[in-house]
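Problem 12. The chain below contains 509 residues. Write out its predicted structure in token notation.
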Amino acid sequence: MDKDVRNVHGDAAPAAGAPGKVAQGSGVTYKDAPVAEAGFRWIEENSKDLEKLSDEIWGYAELGLHEHKSAKALASYLERHGFIVESGVAGMPTAFVATWGEGRPVVGFLGEYDALPGVSQKPSPVREEVVPGGPGHGCGHNLLGVGAAAGAIALKEEMRARGIKGTVKYFGCPAEENFSGKAFMAREGLFNDLDACLTWHPGPMNVVRGGSSLAVKSMNITFHGIASHAAGAPHLGRSALDAVELMNVGVNYLREHIIEKARIHYVTTNGGLQPNVVPAEARVWYYVRAPHMDQLEEIYQRVLKCAEGASIMTETTYDVQVLEAIYEVLPNRTLEDVLAEAMAVAGPPRFGKEDWEFARKIQETFPPGQIEAVFKDETLTDEIKEKLRGKALCDEVLGRPPVPPESRGSTDVGDVSWCTPTSQFSTACVALGTPGHSWQYTAQVGMGIGHAGMIAAARTLVQAGLRLMTDREVIEKAKEEFRKRTGGKPYKSALPPEVKPAFDQFNKM
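Solution.
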């Protein structure tokens, strides 16, 4: 039976026995909102299995496009719970789509499970690598994939309990960190039949992630020269490494003459073999980012001119291999409202005493000023800052800022958001001040702090999913907003048609 959910402003208890508190000023108000009691119950009863699965994927720590064990574990779990799985979609063995139900609405959930190189770490508040120099889940995608799957399965259980018709889809998305699996899936039209799509991401706070992100284009630029003895016959050689270094110098001067919000960064992945041989081949891996795709493309062409100039100066040749090209996130305020409502009902993470102790110890490893930097975030209200001050963990649902924050990062969720109305949120899975892509992040997402945040995310997803399955008006409102933001133009992939997933990229390093 649905419960009446009153104005949620801290003094009103969250519905359905949701734990914890909702920050004052959240601005969320509802009346007669359906509560996902069957879904919440399923998550509670299966929480230990979900934590075990997330730890299993945390232990695999597989890099992008090579998440074979992780994808199999997730796909098998969804199959055991009644979903039909199609594996190897969009030309990627570790990409899959899991489907349950029939008819409309069709609601999608996005899952990720790739790790990052070099951040291997035990679930310990001191630096202890599992594999020296190995990969680790420094962005919490072990939690992301399992939490989204839990939300999808819980929604299935809720729909069965209520006799609701509709289709739930879970998308197993590889390589978010580097090769943007969702962009290849979007190019194949896998998101086109969705009425709405939801996802989440581990973070330091419980908040709906409004605003956009940066579009990004990633490419290898390989220079080809002539090898020779670096001492005996240097005049006969043409150094590909010189070309890489001259290109990098050119790009560094270019930074002064691009828009302020753009970003360019690179690593040299092949600099030759040994100093007494003039390198006949050298390679540099670039990321170019900008708030919008048209801005990105202009800067990208100027970066290529730096490569051209370097090749002329060194009498070398070069080729360009595009690895990824993704759009900025297209916000959907309607779905953000749905998520804010769901988050207030679902409640924040339930942290235990050991979690608080672990968080305080991990904060001791941060450089000076890192925690205080949290409170210099202009998107947080003074009231929220006061509630967070002195805490190691965020244990309240925070209200959305008056002005959505501008992300300096990128995500292939952007391409999904240009295919169908899409929105996302974060739950607290790490201590306040934890740097992303760090060993401290890896440590926390493999223990109780991350587990608590994941369970809270699953609760939010099933609650939001129930709203979408039972309220056709909100679906239509989200679609109308989507049509206005896109101008009614269909999605067109920024990936050139010949570009394939870069399975061998790490073999080139």
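Discussion. Confidence is low (pLDDT under 50) at residues 1-30. Students who got a different answer should revisit the alignment rule from Section 12.3.
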